[in-house]
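Quick one before lunch.
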Amino acid sequence: MQTSLFDNTENAFKLKSDSELERAYFLFKMISKEPLVRIGTAATRFALNANLPVEGLIRSTVFDHFCGGVNEEDCMTSVDKLYSANVCSVLDYSVEGKEEEASFDECMNKVIGLVEFADEKDAMPIVVFKPTGVGRFAIWQKLTEGTALTSEEQVEWERIKERMHGICKIAKERDVEVLIDGEESWMQDAADDMVAELMATYNKEKPIVYNTLQCYRHDRLEYLKKLHLEARARDFKIGMKIVRGAYMEKENKRAKEKGYPTPICKDKRATDENFNATMRYIFENINDISLFLGTHNEDSSLLAVKLMGEMGIAKDDNRVWFGQLYGMSDHISFNLSLEGYNVAKYLPFGPVKDVMPYLIRRAEENTSVAGQTNRELELIKAERKRRRL
Ligand SMILES: Cc1cc2nc3c(=O)[nH]c(=O)nc-3n(C[C@H](O)[C@H](O)[C@H](O)COP(=O)(O)OP(=O)(O)OC[C@H]3O[C@@H](n4cnc5c(N)ncnc54)[C@H](O)[C@@H]3O)c2cc1C
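Model of the flavin-adenine dinucleotide complex:
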């Protein structure tokens, strides 16, 4: 594996003070131990539900490492710091699992607020939201399964569409790009149809709206090719974030329980191949499809760099963005930005208790992907040594 581009730890951790580096070392060492994460997440859930005073502890450890703050203003210190290294921020209101209409409206208002804010701040050219942030999971699922909605649900669905159009319309007016996250496969078809409609409406001249392809699903490249034909026929541009996918265990478990073939690739290698093939297809069609490459995988990031070079796509071409999550893979983000590529970090924010599902996913992801955590640890250790900590 050629990793030289990402081996510069001095640059990777230049924004971290010694004490922040020590915290990262401690955190990733803990996270690498799977039983500890399982016990830790259960204990944390219990403590928060029982209103035990653990917020302070969570805040000063995992929360501050992986999140920008409890609200937008809180995030500005991190936004400015990242931008000083030419890394942009995608503020991600990471409150998950809320199912009331008021929360959906609040999410829409937050994202619209961020669009308005992004319009004035170069450091934040992109916003993001989840389909289930603006509408009930069950509605998305029913539509995906082709089940008829009740008349009340039909009203709810109209409101969901209004929220999504509300965000994208303002985003187009302000020329801010909107990423729409991918979620579980049993609700995703309805989201895909909705996002294709948004693209057809707002992506006429350039991509404003981006959907997400989860390449751990073996059918995604085929879906992209179909959408590409539709985009040509209806004359709109495609915006696509590509990721591997965050719900693998849940997907496999449900498929097994319900007795249908899993939509997930047969192994990690097949996912990697699918991801890289999808990326290649997009680069080959860059005039029609813009790319947000959401990954912490070094090989895929290096392949993107190589393909861009071979195809004569400029490093700072605004149709190509590299994205990592805040608190992870700084060696990829900061070394790519140093080279002149467009890089953005997802910067999650929200009240500590509400952001817990997001944080738990990050902790679990880092245990199930042993290689990645080891790599983070190895780099942190190298930097500690360099600084003689
Ligand atoms: C900026 C950004 C935005 C994101 N947005 C989303 C989103 O909208 N929706 C979403 O679902 N996720 C999202 N993710 C998370 C992403 O899907 C991955 O979970 C995470 O990034 C790890 O994958 P990787 O490419 O970084 O690296 P790697 O560590 O190389 O890959 C790990 C991934 O490979 C896949 N995998 C692992 N083992 C197997 C196996 N045995 N068989 C098949 N596949 C396997 C899984 O998807 C696993 O997460 C986002 C990530 C980033 C960085």
